[in-house]
UniProtKB/TrEMBL annotation:
Full protein name: Ribokinase
Similarity field: Belongs to the carbohydrate kinase pfkB family.
Listed cofactors: Mg(2+)
Keyword vocabulary terms for this entry: ATP-binding, Carbohydrate metabolism, Cytoplasm, Kinase, Magnesium, Metal-binding, Nucleotide-binding, Potassium, Transferase
Residue positions binding ATP: N183, T211, L212, G213, D214, K215, G216, G242, D243, N267
Record field: catalytic activity: D-ribose + ATP = D-ribose 5-phosphate + ADP + H(+)
Domain Carbohydrate kinase PfkB residues, every copy: 1-284
Binding site for K(+): D237, T239, S273, K276, G278
InterPro entries documented for this protein: Carboh/pur_kinase_PfkB_CS, PfkB_dom, Ribo/fructo_kinase, Ribokinase, Ribokinase-like
Enzyme class: transferase
Family annotation (Gene3D superfamilies): 3.40.1190.20
Gene source species: Paenibacillus residui
Amino acid sequence: MGKIAVVGSLNMDYFIETDVLPKMGETVLGNHFFRSPGGKGANQAVAASRLGGDVTMFGSLGEDENGHAIREHLQKERVDLAHLNLVGDRPTGVAFVELCGGDNRIIVVPGANRSTNVNYMQRITTELLSYDVIVFQFETPLEIMDFIIPVLHRHGKIIIVNPAPAAKLNQTIIDKITYLTPNGHEFQALLDTNGSIDEILQAYPNKLIITLGDKGVSYHDGDQVVNIPCIEVTPVDTTGSGDTFTGALATALAEGRNLHDSILFANTAAGLSVTKRGAQSGMPYRNEVESLLRER
């Protein structure tokens, strides 16, 4: 199996469950509150690790209570933390997640994640080149993409970018990325387009993989647009489902699976993840995904 590096955010997530979301200036009562390690980077690292991936996390944490708790948690999840950037002048990033009716809305305060910058990337470039699959998201400064992706591309690495929160990327950088995994809203901001999904997929065959929630996943295989339907589940919490997909895709590709089988594996894992609460706590393990794949 190839080695996976996840470069990205680490947050502590604060969840509030409610039956109704408050309007501006309104106060409502919530049902439950809980705290859980998160951040899109850490989420994807945990997803890949639980599914059998050999994963190292690259990113930044504050030297505070939340940072200590996240390190302890990721160690239990068997994620290698040897190259984490510990910063004393910024707090660990946090996210506030409102859960209502099986859906969510999120506010993220980056904190220490802003220190996952070009200076940090310059220090870890040599280490990154020892990995086979490298995963990025957009919760760290986007300037790192311009710096490190051309280097990884020159060395023939598999580069996966999950463009969330949505933002536009330079076309020359997009051309050097192996796989992009936006959802049905993010791809338009990423590519600065109003085109239909099918039109855009055709323009980026075997590169653009769009996750569509209960409508499954679509990509273009070079001949036609292919849709892989989602598994039938009752959603409890969709937080982290996209991260589960990207982490699972990295694991499958690191194992040498072809793109279709990798997407099928990742789509199944993402479907399972929404049946439990929490971004990381709801992520499935290898045996759960393989069991469902045998039934499909």
